[in-house]
Design a protein that fits this description.
Elements (H helix, E strand, L loop, with lengths): L9 E5 L6 H10 L4 E6 L3 H13 L4 E5 L5 H15 L4 E4 L14 H27 L5 E6 L12 H8 L1 H15 L3 E8 L10 H9 L9 H13 L7 E4 L15
Helix pairs in contact: 1-8, 3-4, 4-5, 4-6
Length: 259
């Protein structure tokens, strides 16, 4: 039985408590009139600060805690979001871990850890929110997050790339399964490039990352947020993966720029 969604639409962004990409997505959609559900795992203080900031902008916002690799946690979180807001119209799964692991240091436990958060965590959140969207006559939009480099992996990140390399297949399967149950549900994926530089990166290092793109740009998380908005607004796109990387994935840098 379907239910009608009412009032302002609701966005749930996993991994959005900290001042990272998910947080930028949350603020962007707050500006579009969305009510915002911020997710965090351990960064409660930062999540509270983000909530107060969004509220100061006139946004209805609440924070929700969960370990996305734990099924019971995800179920509790999604139920809490629905109990609070009444609906979920958009899910963006930015929660992930990224760890440098040399070949000689790879363990089964490290592979399982990255898979649990990056792949299983994405699935669990999409499944629980997808079940909510199935019951909504308006359906909804889910945006997963991969990585531009799964097609051109670099050294020392095998566990990470295994986990992120599963996201395109997961996205297509989710698109099929959820549209079968409600054709108003769409699932797409974004492969980000150097859209947000790590904390502590020097100006020289930042310039080197920019030079590795075709457009010679980087550190622009708002571009990721706009790509999410595009997927949400376009109701005739599902099961696709979009690089948002300034051309990094297709650019073979000159010898002086190689890493």
């Amino acid at each position: 039985m379907s239910v009608e969604t009412i009032g302002q639409p609701v966005l749930l962004v996993t991994g959005s408590g900290k001042k990272r990409v998910g947080n930028v997505v949350a603020e962007h959609f707050a500006g579009l009139g969305y009510r915002i559900a911020l997710h965090y795992r351990t960064s409660e203080a930062e999540a509270r600060e983000s909530r107060e900031h969004l509220k100061s902008l006139g946004c209805k916002c609440e924070i929700f805690q969960a370990d996305v690799s734990r099924e019971a946690d995800v179920q509790r979180m999604v139920k809490s979001v629905v109990d609070h807001f009444g609906q979920i119209d958009v899910l963006v799964t930015t929660a992930s871990i990224w760890t440098k692991t040399r070949w000689e240091e790879i363990t089964v436990e490290e592979i399982q850890k990255q898979f649990a958060v990056n792949t299983l965590g994405t699935y669990l959140c999409a499944r629980e929110v997808g079940n909510v969207m199935i019951s909504q006559s308006s359906g909804g939009s889910i945006v997963t997050v991969g990585d531009w480099a799964i097609e051109r992996p670099y050294l020392d990140h095998l566990p990470y790339f295994i986990s992120k390399g599963s996201i395109p297949a997961l996205t297509r399967v989710l698109a099929c399964e959820l549209a079968e149950r409600n054709p108003n549900i769409r699932v797409n994926c974004i492969h980000p490039g150097p859209i947000l530089f790590p904390d502590g990166l020097s100006e020289e290092e930042g310039n080197q990352l920019r030079e590795l793109t075709l457009l010679k740009k980087g550190n622009c998380p708002e571009m990721f947020a706009r790509a999410v908005e595009g997927f949400v607004q376009n109701q005739f796109i599902t099961g696709t993966c979009l690089p948002v990387d300034g051309g990094r994935s297709m650019h073979v840098p000159s010898e002086k720029h190689r890493q």
